[in-house]
Specification:
- α1 runs antiparallel to α3, α1 packs across α10 and α2 packs antiparallel against α7.
- About 40% of the residues are buried.
- Strands 1, 2, 5, 6, 8, 9, 10 and 11 form an eight-stranded mixed β-sheet that branches.
- β1, α1 and β2 form a beta-alpha-beta unit.
- With about 280 residues, this protein is α/β, with parallel strands linked by helices.
- The longest helix has 23 residues.
- The chain starts with 5 loop residues before the first strand and ends in an 8-residue tail after the last helix.
């Protein structure tokens, strides 16, 4: 008997995407390996690291080490990795400060991981949006750093790379939870949705950035729900991290802890599916 093939989709949601790590711990603890991973935005970053062979436990350690506090993050970026301010930030006009997506991804991924998508241990699909063609772009070959940087390129905040001469922006603009790209040939399709919703505004007059990011989250939710209604995956998990802001990256322990209940939910759902699949044989 052959092992069931599991397709795994990891969605976008900014800092909430750290909740993907406990979900991946479920696969490690059950001794399972997805046959395919598709990732969007933060899900592309986490999914790429996992597809390259990084364990979920190591990702947890890495996240807590780098993002545990702002001082530790600064020491890592400017000390351990030897980066300069100009490597990370781009001032494009008087009121236009951007982050370089490729540098952010390069800092997040350990140097020991493969550099190209073709060399990952698990087949990987990274979702970005071709801004000029106004369409979804599925990247399955080439530089991992470049592809993930395109997928996380939040308009007005993170500068994405040009790929084949085209500007690319966040994959969530077209497909925030890309489970349709891990459906073909799979026995079980698992989708992790961390898009969340805009938090209640603390101020009467929110900033332009709060409105822009919040508007994107509304769009992500609408798109994800529409795709799910048309062709739902077998398992759809929403980690309980909506009370965290999409930019609260310096709360890794709190976000990881908040996802614990959903981790148990995913484990039960997987075990139920696998035990009811006649041709499944865990080795």
């Amino acid at each position: 008997m052959s092992e069931s093939k599991i397709g795994l989709a990891l969605g976008g949601g900014g800092a909430r995407g750290l909740a993907h790590i406990p979900m991946l711990e479920v696969f490690d603890e059950l001794g399972l390996k997805p046959a395919m991973i598709a990732g969007c935005s933060m899900g592309a970053l986490v999914g790429a690291a996992y597809a390259c062979g990084m364990s979920a436990k190591d990702m947890r350690v890495q996240a807590e080490k780098i993002l545990g506090n702002r001082l530790g993050a600064a020491r890592y970026v400017f000390g351990t990795r030897g980066s300069k301010i100009g490597d990370i930030f781009s001032l494009r006009g008087l009121l236009s400060l951007h982050l370089y997506g490729e540098k952010l991804v390069d800092l997040a991924l350990p140097d020991s991981l493969p550099k190209n998508i073709e060399d990952t241990q698990i087949p990987l699909r990274i979702i970005a949006t071709d801004f000029e063609r106004m369409e979804e772009r599925v990247i399955s070959q080439g530089s991992i750093v470049q592809a993930v940087a395109a997928s996380i390129a939040i308009p007005g905040l993170i500068v994405g790379p040009r790929i084949e001469g085209h500007i690319h922006v966040d994959g969530g603009v077209t497909n925030p939870v890309p489970f349709n790209h891990v459906r073909s040939g799979m026995d079980i399709v698992v989708a992790i949705d961390v898009t969340g919703k805009p938090r209640a505004l603390a101020r009467k007059h929110p900033s332009n950035m709060e409105l822009a990011v919040g508007s994107m989250l509304i769009m992500f939710n609408q798109l994800a729900e529409l795709r799910r209604a048309v062709a739902p995956p077998d398992i759809y998990i929403r980690p309980e991290v909506e009370h965290f802001g999409s930019r609260e990256f310096f709360k890794p322990r709190e976000i990881l802890e908040a996802a614990t209940a959903s981790k148990d939910k995913l484990k039960r759902a997987l075990e139920l599916r696998l035990n009811s699949t006649p041709h499944y044989d865990r080795t």
